[in-house]
Design a protein that fits this description.
With 148 residues, the protein is an all-alpha fold. The chain has one domain. The chain is 66% helix and 0% strand. The protein contains ten helices and no strands. α7 packs parallel to α10. It is globular and about 50 Å long. The two termini are 28 Å apart.
């Protein structure tokens, strides 16, 4: 299959990534990603998310600041639920980057209120699996050139 400009950019994005983005690559849920979620991702994956998200977004979408402080103090990994949310947000961001061409465009789109979402921001909807699926469907329509 010939490589397109879009797939080349995506490959570069994934090549520069760490564990979280590697698990989120391609948007597919794998046995490796399920096992990582069940075990709890290390808190260090949040540094990868900080490349994409602001602190207030991490606090709202993944883990509250106070809970994070407790986990760090005890040397605990993220819980399964927190790991799931972190991986979900990374998966949505990765797909948006692949679809829209750059991380900057992707994050701007994810942070912008959208009329099809009743004025809500796609990034905020990615807090739940159902919301993330809705955003993934919108991105698929954009990738195929459909009007949204």
């Amino acid at each position: 299959m010939p490589r397109t400009a879009r797939s080349s950019r995506r490959d570069v994005s994934i090549a520069k990534s760490g564990r979280l983005r590697r698990l989120a690559a391609g948007g597919a849920v794998t046995a490796e990603s399920v096992a990582a979620i069940e075990q709890g991702l290390p808190i260090s994956v949040l540094s990868e998310l900080r490349e994409l998200l602001r602190e207030d977004e991490i606090e709202r979408l993944v883990i509250p600041r106070r809970t994070l402080a407790h986990r760090r103090l005890r040397g605990e990994p993220l819980s399964a639920e927190e790991s799931d949310r972190a991986l979900r947000v990374a998966r949505v961001a990765e797909l948006a980057t692949a679809t829209l061409g750059t991380q900057e465009k992707a994050m701007a789109w994810l942070r912008h209120e959208h009329r099809l979402l009743d004025g809500r921001k796609p990034l905020d909807l990615s807090r739940t699996e159902a919301g993330a699926r809705l955003i993934e469907n919108m991105l698929a329509r954009i990738a195929w050139g459909a009007a949204i």
